[in-house]
Specification:
Elements (H helix, E strand, L loop, with lengths): L9 E3 L11 H7 L5 E3 L4 E6 L4 E5 L3 E4 L36 E3 L2 E2 L11 H16 L12 E4 L4 E6 L2 H6 L4 E7 L4 H6 L6 E7 L4 E9 L2 H14 L3 H5 L11 H13 L31
Parallel strand pairs: 1-2
Antiparallel strand pairs: 3-4, 4-5, 6-7, 8-9, 9-12, 10-11, 11-12
């Protein structure tokens, strides 16, 4: 936002790339904003002379008028007295089971459990803990579709595993991707339509294990894919659904077509037939029989 109003903005990130927990394409998307981005750059110290901040890096320094620090938090379990309950006060997190039980008569939820530091995940865990305390039953924790939304512009929503995480788990990975500007709604939107939808699939089981929606209302578009990942909806079912036209979420079908070509290599339909373009060439809506129909 500040950069778009002409302010010179510098982002200093110790990790090798922006949004290190997300798909690499997400960080690349944010890097297009004309901001001075310095990744892989740890900070040695910060000083203030009464007017400006000086951020000392290893080998150079950056002087700025305003400074926003977003460096995370550390757990201080010792101050909670967890040792009295037999838990390690030096631990970074409290380990819980699927019912949020940490010890006899003790439940833990939220950031302290180390699953992910998001309000919606803490609320999800709270419901499980309350049911267990009251003895009302219900399913335990299922984290296959843990999600996060980064409220930048473009907005970035992600759920489940990234491509790299899925490969690390030995999954037979296939990916499908489409660019938001290629969709009908993206073309209508014009300025500010940068973004993409990326799907990560387990080809052996025929289900999605991860998804990223970046672009206008990326977190809202993600909703349908969270359901698909959590419920393990077959990709074949997702590919033959009706997606409202012209909406941003309709671009999901374009990403599914790209994914289908990698799962079903027998499909040789020209790429122009499987994506809407503003050139007037045949688009997805000219072929209503599904990704590999007649």
């Amino acid at each position: 936002m500040f950069a778009r109003f002409g302010v010179r903005v510098t982002v200093i990130e110790a990790q090798p790339r922006l949004l290190p927990a997300a798909e690499p394409e997400a960080g690349d998307l944010l890097a297009r904003e004309g901001i001075d981005i310095r990744t892989g750059t740890p900070v040695a110290g910060v000083s203030h002379d009464g007017r400006r901040f000086t951020v000392s890096l290893y080998g150079e320094a950056v002087t700025v008028e305003r400074l926003l620090v977003a460096a995370g938090r550390r757990t201080r379990l010792a101050e909670l007295g967890v040792a009295a309950l037999g838990l390690d006060p030096a631990a970074r997190v409290i380990t819980v089971d699927e019912r949020m039980r940490a010890a006899d008569g003790l439940w833990a939820i939220g950031d302290i459990t180390g699953v992910s530091a998001h309000t919606h995940r803490a609320m999800y865990q709270a419901g499980i803990a309350v049911r267990d305390i009251l003895g009302t039953g219900g399913p335990g924790a299922d984290y296959r579709a843990v999600l996060a939304v980064t409220f930048t512009d473009p907005e970035i929503g992600q759920a489940g595993l990234t491509e790299a995480q899925a490969r690390q788990r030995g999954i037979d990975v296939r990916t499908g991707i489409t660019q938001v500007p290629w969709s009908a709604r993206g073309w209508i939107h014009k300025a500010g339509n940068d973004g993409f939808i990326k799907l990560v699939a387990d080809a052996g089981r025929g289900v999605l294990v991860g998804a990223t929606c970046a672009g206008p209302m990326g977190g809202e578009v993600l909703g349908a894919l969270v359901v698909a990942i959590h419920a393990q909806v077959p990709i074949s079912s997702l590919s033959t659904m009706i997606y409202a036209y012209p909406t941003f979420h309709r671009a999901i079908s374009d990403a599914l077509r790209d994914l289908d070509k990698k799962i079903s290599p027998a499909c040789r339909r020209p790429a122009a037939w499987c994506a809407y373009t503003e050139t007037g060439k045949p688009g997805a809506d000219d072929y209503p029989h599904g990704p590999c129909g007649p």
